[in-house]
Amino acid sequence: MAPATALSRAKSFEKWSIFNIMKTFLKLILSLSFSLGAMAWISLVLAGGNGCVDTVVASFEERYRAVHSLASDFTQENFIASLEESRAFQGKLFLARPSLFAMEVFSPSRQTLIFDGHFFWVYTEASNQVLKHTVAQSFFDHPLISLLTTMENLQENFTVSLAPSEAATVDQVLMLTPKKSTGEVQTIHLRVSKETSQIKEVTLYHGSGNYTRLALNNTVENGELPPERFQYSPAPGTDVVEDPTPVLKPY
User: Fold this and answer.
1) Distance, CA of 168 to CA of 33 (rounded, Å)
2) Alpha-carbon distance 168 to 226, whole Å?
3) Cys-Cys with 206: which of 20, 95, 172, 210 at CB 3.0–4.6 Å?
4) 106-136, pLDDT tens digit by residue?
């Protein structure tokens, strides 16, 4: 166990981790990465009404059940209303059923974040320090960790509508309102390609006026992800700080 002062410094540094500006935005990523076909999508949008939404959601849920892993490049923008400024992050995201998670942040600073099914690790290259967290049972139920199973029942969790769309546009926006409180997130907009029916952008709007926008590129579904991708072993010389308090949720 590291000294209390080291833990305090680690927690202070950790506040600036990518997770502070992510939290729940990943709950929708994997559920929408599939192909309906461009003509099928356009016909659904032009049809309008609840029947259109129900058909789209049913297709999402059916496709989602077949997705067991995901790897994607991401670019994230976080707008902070109180400061009237944005911060940008870039990296790579990996997910695998039932609850494995890994993220490599490349810019503006390098971090590695991994949940291996038992411990939640946050490594910061600049300080050569890793935080090792135990997790509470509620951690497994968090949408970020249970991403690959959350969207199997999309309409049980969200009220879904389609934003007006011109036939000439290349994207369609799904608007989702959580049926249960998700903290600061009030609405979620999902920009989906009409041509491929894959998600291109997720935007979370917060009651404070903040928003988080995540763009995915080069997404690969059901690719081979080795077990080592979701494991973390501190290199010699790494400062390991263990937090004795179980983590209730990702940051």
Assistant:
1) 22
2) 41
3) 210
4) 999 999 999 999 999 999 999 999 999 999 8
